[in-house]
Design a protein that fits this description.
Two copies of one chain form a homodimer. Chain A contains twelve helices and 20 strands. Chain A is α/β, with parallel strands linked by helices. The first copy, chain A, has a domain of 172 residues: Carbamate kinase, CATH 3.40.1160. The first copy, chain A, is globular. Chains A and B meet through helix 1, helix 2, helix 3 and helix 4 of A and helix 1, helix 2, helix 3 and helix 4 of B.
Chain lengths: 406, 406
């Protein structure tokens, strides 16, 4: 007998019929002899509605009040799920972040979990009770409700699984697993049976949007076996596991893309020590995250061209910051470009295989796609290309790495 | 400088525009030099929606889970109101029942407040901060969220006013005060400037539905001056105060009616000791509240006819209970009748005035209205009549006691 954490996302608890369906999945897991803890998101659409109220109430709203308002969505689902379980004959009890407590830091709106006191939950699970935990929320050191950022219920579930030393954490969603690529774009995309934490982390942050990045980090650090699966059809999903659980590792596991990128080029930046810090410091202070960075010597040899990417949503803010510091930096020109897409080839296998990058560049060249920026990590190669090539590039790479279903 | 508690009902916080309007009323009270604490209900319609979810999730839902689900409505409004106040330049912070805490007993769904720890709230009010308290909710001895029953936010507000030793508790609603009678029925109904706690208690429980009965009880016990007023138009409302604050007391202050009554007559009940207990005991055990009771000797002298009223919602349940015990009691016949209305004449002045009841009976007789049951208290005379006479009876009495506006 093991312990399983089951997490149900917004579409899996969209209304009472769906909640009842999810309760059936809990019951089934229990009948397989396992102890189950449940984590729930808000009903689909509810969080957006609550966030809308906040934006309407105040132009710059207080993050502490925002947290108290939006956390109510998960509170409702947790109570209803406990009722549905009881109705199905399963002893259940709902738990809010402050009740357990799930302790976080005090960074309201995107708090981090610092600890979960799971003793009482474990005691009750040992008696057969199913705790239904409101996801997305915790409690600050001063006793205020905190939330973990959008998608934070994944993180609640994984952190709870770690605290409970659960055998597995099942993330129920509206897709049935992680694919080699977005099936809406690549018809031959295949569901992966297993994927490593590292790959999933890249897939998630590259826009695959299946799991919150932070949840995968916690799973990796605490070696929590994750499963992504659908609450709407049977069958196994994708297991996110440690590398040594995967016997035959593919060189490339998947292709990800993100349209959420914008490119900024600073032309003729004076090439002197400290200039990068003078540019990226103020951006960081303004809360703008910079992703890919490349720097070339320009023709005159006295200045460089600096290109980097930010998220599309932060482009305006970034441009404003850069214009504000130009008196000091004195670059030649500022060229913002939102019409780009980042395409990534991901796979832990590329650590031990040469020629992976070459195959990518060749496939793109054969399709006449110009690469604007390249960035690499141990298990990933990302390129920035013109947004209009998104589908073409993704499909070409999916084929080039032999990922198409036969 | 005094302390004022302002409570806003569901229609006064129905959307963000209304919440902003309410925040303006808080600001105005503050500018008059008072410290203000705010209590809010759920946005209009929200509680009904949440209750609907619960009924859908489980036929017989767990009251503890119900409380956790429905309490979320006030949580949302409290956060939004705090934001709206901050936006208007008023320092504010939302507070949930368990955060203050508002301690209650553990009778989920209709908990009673046992204490409010207001020290921290008072400390913050002294610095100029406005606490925005989620109404309707508290925390049980075991740390679970409790709710105080429908309309419970009134009770939250009055109990908070008592704890804060507030000068006044203003209940903002969608009517501008307490009337001599329901203005939808009696065109000449007048707004009362002042009414005693005792009268208000009778008005509330007789169906005037302006304030939760329990809130008036607490106000009376702690001598909290209440004001019922509208958040939609200016001008004073109705003050609910101690009797000695009212200099010139009317004999009758108002006429109330309740269509929520059903009559049950047991014909030929054996007239022996203990029979009343044998009937009302099982009803009470089944949670059926009995209101008016009359008992007559029947013609044969060996049995009595027993008539009493229950709420319409509990009529079926009452009939079932009575049929179940007939083998034991052996009454002749059971006659249920839902087509009745209870009409009450209310006034503390009737304590010192004779002839008040006579005027009621005369007015009804002159209009050909037959009285089925009579019950009296120190400050109230209630009669049960055929429901079809509701408007006629109420208007006749309003005129008979000289309450019509001139």
């Amino acid at each position: 007998m093991g312990r399983i954490v089951q997490k149900f996302g917004g579409t899996s608890v969209a209304d009472i019929a769906h909640i009842r369906n999810a309760a059936g999945l809990v019951q089934a897991e229990r009948e397989r002899g396992n102890q189950v803890a449940v984590v729930v998101s808000a009903m689909a659409g509810v969080t957006n509605q609550l966030v809308g109220y906040c934006s309407e109430a105040a132009a710059l709203y207080d993050a502490r009040e925002y947290d108290s308002v939006v956390a109510s969505g998960e509170q409702v689902t947790a109570g209803l799920m406990a009722m549905a379980l009881q109705e199905a004959g399963v002893p259940a009890r709902s738990w809010l972040g402050p009740q357990i407590p799930i302790r976080t830091n005090d960074v309201h709106g995107k708090a981090r979990i610092v600890g979960i006191d799971s003793v009482e939950l474990e005691r009750r699970m040992d008696t057969g009770e199913v705790p239904v935990v409101a996801g997305f929320q915790g409690v600050s050191p001063t006793g205020r409700i905190t939330t973990l950022g959008r998608g934070g219920s994944d993180t609640s579930a994984v952190a709870l699984a770690a605290a409970l030393k659960a055998e597995r954490c099942d993330i129920y969603t509206d897709v049935d697993g992680v694919y080699t690529c977005d099936p809406r774009i690549v018809r031959g995309a295949r569901k992966l049976h297993k994927i490593t934490y590292e790959e999933m982390l890249e897939m998630a942050s590259q826009g695959a949007k299946v799991l919150q990045t932070r949840s995968v980090e916690i799973a990796m650090n605490h070696r929590v076996r994750l499963q992504v699966l659908s609450s709407f059809d049977d069958g196994p999903g994708t297991l996110v596991v440690d590398e040594d659980e995967i016997v035959e590792q593919q060189v490339v596991s998947g292709i990800a893309y993100s349209r959420d990128e914008a490119k900024i080029t600073l032309v003729k930046v004076p090439d002197k020590p400290g200039v990068a810090a003078a540019i990226f410091g103020p951006l960081s202070d303004a809360g703008v995250n910079v992703d890919m960075i490349v720097q070339n010597i320009s023709e005159d040899g006295k200045s460089t061209d600096l290109t980097f990417t930010v998220s599309k949503a932060e482009l305006k803010q970034a441009v404003r910051v850069l214009e504000g510091i130009n008196g000091e930096i004195r670059f030649g020109q500022l060229r913002p470009d939102p019409n780009v897409v980042k395409i990534s080839v991901i796979g832990v296998g590329m650590r031990s295989h040469a020629g992976v990058a070459l195959r990518m560049f060749t496939a793109l060249a054969e399709n006449g796609i110009n690469i604007q920026v390249i960035s690499t990590s141990e298990i990933k190669i990302s390129v920035l290309v013109d947004e209009k090539y998104t589908e073409l590039a993704v499909r070409a790479l999916h084929t080039a790495y032999g990922l198409d279903a036969t």
